[in-house]
Amino acid sequence: MKEHPILFTGEMVRAILDGIKTQTRRVIKPQSGAPICKYNVRDRLWVRETWCYKMTDGRYEYNANGNPLVYYRATDPDVEAVDDDGMTKYRKDGSPASPWIPSIYMPYWAARIFLEITDLKVERLQEISEDDAKAEGAEHWAAHGYVTSFSYLWDSINGKRGYGWDVNPKVRVITFKMIKGGDASE
Question: pTM above the 0.90 mark?
Fold first, then answer.
């Protein structure tokens, strides 16, 4: 069993925590000689999400293990950046500064969600079923169902990178179960 980091948007983090999302699709980028699947069933994924440090009066707060306490943007969206005297920080243009650190920079110790891979397969994106689109965390649209909703969600995340729905890329389908979720700070 290996552990791998994986990125999710705030919306998808909330869907995982709510027990709605149990699958994810990741584009398989063509690479000569590279293995198609770097994951195995029973491997664990630790979720990287947008986060920031908890501070009081300009000082970090720590848990019993000595790690800094953190907020997660998916579930604590109203956090403001503060300076050393506890006052809100502002940018030069007068807008509030953001305390949020992009998910790619989340260290392992700050992760709160751990997933175990239960199944893996490879398919074309548009082969997704209604049940799988629901497992992806897509909403049900009365007139169109889960797949259409998922196609819009997919394009919002992957379209700008050249892997939109219409491209129909080959994807790695990862089915998982949550084995730990909550607040890593505690």
Answer: no
